[in-house]
Structures are given as C-alpha cells and as structure tokens.
Amino acid sequence: MSQKRDYYEVLGVSKDASETEIKKAFRKLAMEYHPDRNPDNPEAAEKFKEATEAYDILSNSEKRNSYDRFGFAGVHSDFSSVNSRDFSTISDLFSSLFRDDFVGDDLFSQFFGGRRRSRQSGPQRGSDLLMNYQITFIEALYGTKKVVEVPIKKECETCKGTGAHEGTQPKQCDRCQGSGVETVTREMGFTRYISQQGCSKCQGSGEIVDKPCKNCKGSGRSKE
C-alpha cells in the first residue's frame, strides 16, 4: 500500500492557504476525477477519494487545526468510503461546492452542456428551430433581410396532446415510477458510487405510450 500523502500536497496548496484557495483547488480535482466523469477508472476513483479526504479535513477549521498540530493522528477519520460527506453523486458534489456560483440546472449546463431532467408543471421552453435558407454571396457580404415561413406545431386534436391512440392514455413508467430519472449504482473496489440520469425507458418523460396516436405518431403535436 502506498504511503499516505500530506493533505496540502494532495490539493496542491501551501500550508497557509486560505479557505477559498483550498476550495478552488478541490473544485479542480473533483471536476477531473469524479467517478461520474471517469466510469470504470479505479485510478481516478482513488484520486478523487484522496482529494475528498484532504478537502474534508482542510475545509473544516477544527479538523485543520488538529491536523496541523498532530498530523494524521490528530484527525481520527475513517475514510473507508469516499468521505464523511455525501459526494456519492456529482450532483451532490456540485451542489455543495458551486452553490454560490450557480443556480439550479445552470450548474449542469456549465459543466455538461445540458440540464438534469425534472418533472415540471406549466409551459416549458421548446427546442431551438434550425432552418436552411439560401442567400446570394452579395447578401452574405452586405447583409439582408428575408421573410421566412416558420412551421408551427400545435397540440394534436386527435389525442389532445397525450401522444396516445384515441381512447387510450399514457401509463406511468414502471422503471422510474413517473419521475423521469433513474438511479445507477456502480461499485469500484470497496467504494459504491450512485448517480442519476434520465430514464432510459421513457426518455425522461415519466410516461410510456404503448399505442401511439396515428395522427401525430406519438409526439402529441401536429402541424397547423
């Protein structure tokens, strides 16, 4: 077994580092080595565990003071799991570390280019519309204005937006129990990591349509 490294060395900070510097250093390591970003990589999992243990001690003033005075003997922590804090999912980790910088799903947009799936009520923003339109070289050079027809989809009159065949209704997804999210558990050695992702069965909708509407093909919307 390799020798335990000094906590300051693990995070790459000096012994007089401020709380902000310690947090910033751990952010960088957590982003790089978290198991959700390194599936089936025992080396990354071990580095994440090491960094998390160091952060747990150095981010706590009492533990840090005890460590500075007595070394490892002064902290008396058992890190048989990832750490004493619950960073088992990358969502938990970022909620703890970045709550001052981001709000809600914006955090996931910053790091993963997307949003967590969630069941929301009321109107939601749709997808961006991409259209191909041919213009001349001169128009591209000097700019131009064009009037384009934008295809608009409305609620399917046949299924009333459910996407289900007339006379039937969507049923709750039995995999995610209607939440649109499923939990995935991975084990690496003695450590268990739990993460959440969009349900693979209902694609995050929380509902299953056994018999799609013939008019809208199950989308729930049709062209005007």
Structure in words:
The chain is built from 7 helices and 6 strands; from the N terminus they run αααααααββββββ. With 224 residues, it is of the alpha+beta class. It folds into 2 domains: 7-112, Orthogonal Bundle (Helix Hairpins); 137-223, Ribbon (Chaperone, DNAj Protein, Chain A). Strands 1-6 form a two-stranded antiparallel sheet. Strands 2-5 form a two-stranded antiparallel ribbon. It has a two-stranded antiparallel sheet with strand order 3-4. A hairpin with a 2-residue loop joins β3 and β4. The longest helix has 17 residues, at 42-58.
SSE topology:
Elements: H1 7-11, H2 19-33, H3 42-58, H4 61-70, H5 90-97, H6 106-112, H7 137-142, E1 153-155, E2 171-172, E3 181-188, E4 191-198, E5 207-208, E6 221-223
Antiparallel strand pairs: 1-6, 2-5, 3-4
Helix pairs in contact: 2-3
Widest sheet, order of strands: 1-6
Total strand count, please?
6
Sketch the major β-sheet: 2 strands, antiparallel
**Mean of all residue-level pLDDT scores:** 76
Low-confidence stretches: 77-84, 100-121
At CATH level 3, the topology of the largest domain is: Helix Hairpins
Using the coordinates above, name the CATH class of the largest domain.
Mainly Alpha
Structural class: alpha+beta
Which architecture name of the largest domain does CATH use? Orthogonal Bundle
Share of β-strand residues: 5-15%
